[in-house]
Structure formats: C-alpha cells, structure tokens
Amino acid sequence: MNIRHREEKPLVSIITVNFNQTAVTLDFLDSVRAQHYPHFEVIVVDNGSTEPPGAVLQEHYPEVLYLETGRNLGFSGGNNVGLRAARGAYFLLVNNDTVLTPDMIDTLLQHFQSDPSIGMVCPLIRYHDRPDLIQYAGYTGMNPLTARNKTIGQFDLDRGQYTQPASTWFAHGAAMFTSRGVVEKAGMMPEEYFLYYEELDWSANIREAGYRIDLEPRAIIFHKESLSVGKLSTTKTYYMTRNRILFMRRHAPWWSLLIFLVYFGGVVVPVHTARFLLWGQREHLRAFYRALAWHIKPATTAAEQSGIPRLVL
C-alpha cells in the first residue's frame, strides 16, 4: 500500500497493558504486526511488572511506544496511561492475552464509522485454546436485583449464528474500539474499580453520554482467558464483590439500589459465608468481608477522588 493511501486512513492507537506476561505480550504484538490496516500505532503500558519488558520490546519491536507506570494501577489505570499518550483519532483497547485476526481493525473501524450514534464496538471473542468456541457475542442488561448479567453466546460452538452486527448493553474489556471524540465526551475508564466491572461502568457512561455499544461479529479476536488472575483467587473474590456493589451505587436508581442492598445483605452475604466456611476457604471469606468493609470504613483515596459517598450503617 502506498504512502498516500496510508495517510488517508485515520490513525488508530492500539493500547495494551502488560503485567508480568512478557511472552504473552510478544505473541500479541506478532498478531498486531499482521494487521492489514496500514495506519496504526502500538502502545504497551507496563503496569509495574517485576521484570519490565522494555529491553525486549526495544530490540524486537522498536516501533512500539513503551510506557512504564512504576506500579500496578489496575486495568483501568494502565489503559488510561495509554489513552493519555495516544495520538490516534480512534482507540483499540485490547488485552495482551489476545490474538488479533488480520482484518480486525479494518472491520471495526468501518462499522464504527457507519453511524455517528455508535460509541464503542467490540469484536466477536472466541477462546484461543478452543477457537471454535465463543466467549463473547454481547452482554445482556444488568439485573436490578442481583447486579448480574449474562454473556451472550458464551461456550456456544460458533456455527455462524452470529453474523450480523447488533447493539449490546456492555462492551467486553478484552477488546474495545472507540474514538477520541467519544472518550472526550464520556470520559476515560473509571479507575475506582482497579479490576473487574470497569468496562461495564465505562459502557454505562458511554451509553449515558448518548451513544450505543455494538457487537461486530465479522471482526474476530481470540482470547487466552484467565492468565492474569486465577479463577479461584482471593483477589478475584475481593474485587468481584467490592465492585459489584460499587457499580450499583454508581449507576442504579435509588429504588433499585435499595432492593439490591436488601437482596445482597439477606441472600448473598449468608450464602457466601456458609459456602466459604463449608469449603474451608477462610482466605476467601476474609477477602469477601474486606470487600464489604470497603463500603463502610472511612473513605479511601480512590473513593474520595471518585466522589462516591460511603454507606452509613
């Protein structure tokens, strides 16, 4: 492709966050190099790794803009560092534990540009180890009682049942395509969450700004799931519990929040307490109650900055 054609294409900033996964990030960058789209920049944000990959990237991927945070800022914080450094008119925030198909950027950009009401587009996500198995084909809305939603298509064999673009309630954090204009209007990723629920909150902010979120299933990405945090980790127990409540406090109407808190206190707390005790998972039980205490104790720095009032009992 000639230089003129390249310059006619808008610059897309591809942003990914690395945390102690150098080999995984290198695989990701190989798939980025295979993109058919001619005009993009790549930003790798190292989120406080014990062995930062800067030297390796400089040697093998000199085209990459490499940034170090110096400490773990969480999923949102790391991505926001990349957003602040990005020069593109469009942004692709994508997990480093993914493999992009060669025409993914082209397909996402074409769909995004087709309608000014679109605020974010996600590709169809399949599992890397089972490439015929779907991980994400959209999300349902949030249940106002339980603060849970469902992933459409998860664990379904891809038989071509998802071929047409469709609106969805929430983006998937593994791959999110948006524009500078949308981010300027809706804001960057909320950093109060640190891990989990942040893309749901960002999606809600984007929809509240007047945009919609779409799935473009003709764009496909493969995801190496659960590399960052183990499925049974106390970190996951803590943040999934804490942020489930936080999301409702930020986005649920008062009546829905009240119903949710009654349900959570009367059902979720005793059930989880009994389950962790029965299974002998006392570390998980402590993580669960620390997550509850986060909403009751005096405000932490993150909460003070976010302007979220504490629950008063």
What does this protein look like?
There is one protein chain. This protein has 313 residues and is α/β, with parallel strands linked by helices. The chain folds into two domains: 3-223, Spore Coat Polysaccharide Biosynthesis Protein SpsA, Chain A; 234-306, no CATH class. It has helices at residues 3-8, 22-33, 54-60, 74-85, 104-112, 180-186, 198-208, 234-251, 254-278, 282-293, 301-306; strands at residues 12-18, 40-46, 65-68, 90-94, 98-100, 118-127, 134-136, 166-168, 175-179, 212-223. Strand 6 and strand 7 (134-136) form a beta hairpin. The chain is globular, with a radius of gyration of 20 Å.
Give structural attributes.
313 residues, alpha/beta, Spore Coat Polysaccharide Biosynthesis Protein SpsA, Chain A, 2 domains, 5-stranded mixed β-sheet, 11 helices, 10 strands, disordered C terminus
Report the total helices: 11
Overall pLDDT: 90
CATH class of the largest domain: Alpha Beta
C-alpha end-to-end distance? 64 Å
Percent strand: 15-25%
How many beta strands in the DSSP annotation?
10
**Main structural class:** alpha/beta
Instruction: Give the overall silhouette.
Output: globular
